[in-house]
Write a structure and sequence with these properties.
FAD/NAD(P)-binding domain, 28 strands, 3 domains, transit peptide, alpha/beta, Protein-Tyrosine Phosphatase, Chain A, globular, about 25% helix, 15 helices, about 550 residues
Length: about 550
């Protein structure tokens, strides 16, 4: 038997035999649903034989036969009714298990999210791509027409999406482009570190989305439920269908706060904060100002995360503020990093270590935050040192800055566009999808091995634009991405270590060393971060003005 659990109460499997009923009972099942019509295969036991064997062992059985490939809405309703009437757990079977998984998906479409259904069936080895529109439509068969069709559809109106739209418009103004995003507000997220350090005001990092969508680009204010790349379609919540000639996928990533037990309940109070949220970054600065003694923990989860330097930026700016006030000697700074190094590009580590020493911070590697009790001011970390059993330790704190675990959005992870880890699967040079050649991706959601930063998206947007337009014109990709990313590490108020690097940790400085030496703290780099980068973001990057972002041409073999 090959039994696959969809939920705690429902499992599916290929054809079973009367002889296997005892094992099925031993597994704990109390009922069986047969979704395979009698006589479909020459060696197939009849439902009557299976039912009789089940009855002898006290299991209930129900017959809901489905012709392969023909699951009707009524069939799904009958399956749902059977699940509600039969004692659980229930095992449903057909020839391969696919019809049973399909019936469950449609039956539960009005109570479970699309992502949860697709994740459960995918984990069990069943692809529900063929019925995704019906799942989105609450399990009912929708009309097959498209509600709208565009030359280019862009999923996500963050830094990557708006920059890509603007870059396309600047090259080919007649393109019919739509951006799909449900958000009302667009945030300049790189500014939140500065908010948490008392340098920026939070409202200065936010603008209305409508004010930033490029002129002539259609804004579809809706959430994406699923993709049908084989049909060039994006399915929105409510089962609206948007078709495209070419697709750009850049919805960012998901901050998985719930992965840390107790974290959601205590965020924004009990001394627990995070610069990864607009509403919490001001609380970081409030805590720093109030703190005169005690322990401050700064956490960093396993990679990948966006702006991998942000967790330690918070530590440095906090340490600097305490140093300036003369209270640093009474504050115990702990940097708990799930990884094994302070920073992934070794050239920048010596300068950073000097600031770790200045602030007398303890570096605790392989420490991953797993639980928080805010009221008790306690946190628990799993310590996973190489070739050593995992040990869970408890630490008390007075203030804790948390960087949350991060994953691809649910609707991406369960889509045909994702790799095994859930990220959009692209060629790391051209940013074109490896399977669907009319799909591109950029920003935090794709799987190229680069740093997930706004600076990376700034470089990627014109590359995607160049390659997409080359494809429209029947040409091969003309631009390639070298993995560029930038992380301005705010080591103290007024000085920054400007880390710029590409694939493999190769240093890719934008400025001559005489102006900014990225391996050393610099006032010029601070001026760039504080005064220049915000207007460059709002007025250049998001408007298709590609300052210092000229695409690198593909090198001929």
């Amino acid at each position: 038997m090959d039994i696959k659990a969809l939920t705690a109460g429902v499992s599916v499997s290929p054809q079973i035999t009367p002889e296997e009923i005892q094992s099925i009972k031993d597994y704990g099942f109390r009922s069986i649903i047969c979704n395979r019509p009698d006589g479909e295969g020459a060696d197939q036991p009849s439902f009557e034989e299976v039912s009789a064997a089940a009855a002898k062992l006290g299991l209930e059985a129900r017959y809901i036969p489905i012709i392969s490939g023909k699951v009707s809405d009524d069939d799904a309703q009958a399956f749902d009714k059977a699940l509600s009437e039969l004692p659980g757990p229930t095992l449903a079977y057909c020839r391969s298990g696919t019809r049973s998984a399909t019936l469950w998906s449609l039956a539960k479409a009005d109570v479970l999210s699309v992502a949860d259904i697709l994740a459960a069936t995918k984990s069990a080895g069943y692809d529900m791509g063929g019925v995704v529109r019906r799942i989105v439509n609450g399990g009912k068969t929708p009309t097959d027409r498209a509600d709208a069709t565009y030359d280019v559809v862009i999923v996500g109106a963050g830094a990557a999406g708006i920059a890509a739209a603007s870059s396309l418009r600047s090259r080919k103004p007649d393109l019919n482009i739509a951006i799909i995003d449900p958000a009302d507000i667009h945030y300049y997220q790189p500014g939140w570190t500065m908010v948490g350090g008392g340098i920026f005001d939070a409202p200065d990092t936010a603008k209305t989305m409508g004010s930033l969508i490029p002129r002539g680009v259609h804004w579809i204010k809706a959430a994406v439920a699923a993709f049908e790349p084989q049909d060039n379609a994006v399915i929105l919540d409510g089962c609206r269908v948007v078709k495209y000639e070419r697709l750009i996928v850049c919805p960012g990533l998901k901050l998985d706060w719930n992965r840390v037990e107790g974290l959601v309940e205590t965020l924004g109070k009990n001394g627990v904060t995070s610069n990864y949220r607009y509403d919490l970054a001001p609380y970081t600065w409030e805590l720093v100002q109030q703190m005169n003694e005690g322990r401050a923990i700064f956490t960093q989860p396993p990679m990948p995360i966006k702006c991998a330097g942000a967790p330690q930026k918070a530590m440095y700016l906090s340490g600097d503020a305490w140093f300036r006030r003369g209270v640093l000697k009474d504050i115990d700074i702990q940097f708990n990093n799930a990884g094994g190094v302070l920073f992934g590009v070794k050239d920048y580590v010596p300068a950073l270590e000097k600031y770790v020493k200045k602030y007398d911070a303890s570096l605790n590697f392989f420490h991953n935050l797993v639980a928080v009790d805010g009221a008790a001011k306690k946190a628990w970390f799993d310590v996973s040192k190489p070739e050593t059993p995992v040990e869970r330790i408890e630490m008390e704190f007075d203030m804790m800055h948390v960087c949350p675990p991060q994953v691809a959005p649910d609707f991406i992870r369960v889509s045909p566009l994702a790799d095994d880890a859930g990220w959009v699967d692209v060629d790391q040079a051209t940013l074109r999808h490896k399977t669907y050649d009319n799909v591109w991706s950029l920003g935090d959601v794709m799987n190229a091995p680069n740093a997930k930063t706004a600076a990376a998206a700034r470089i990627q947007a014109p590359i995607v634009a160049e390659n997409l337009i080359a494809d429209i014109e029947g040409r091969a990709p003309v631009a390639q991405y070298n993995g560029y990313g930038s992380c301005p590490l705010t080591v103290e108020r007024g000085k920054i270590i400007l880390a710029e690097f590409g694939y493999g940790g190769t240093m890719l400085p934008s400025f001559p060393k005489i102006f900014i030496d990225g391996t050393k703290p610099s006032r010029a780099a601070w001026f760039l971060k504080e005064k220049m980068l915000p207007p460059i973001y709002w007025k250049a990057m998001l408007r298709g003005r590609e300052w210092m972002a000229k695409p690198e041409k593909v090198t001929a073999n």
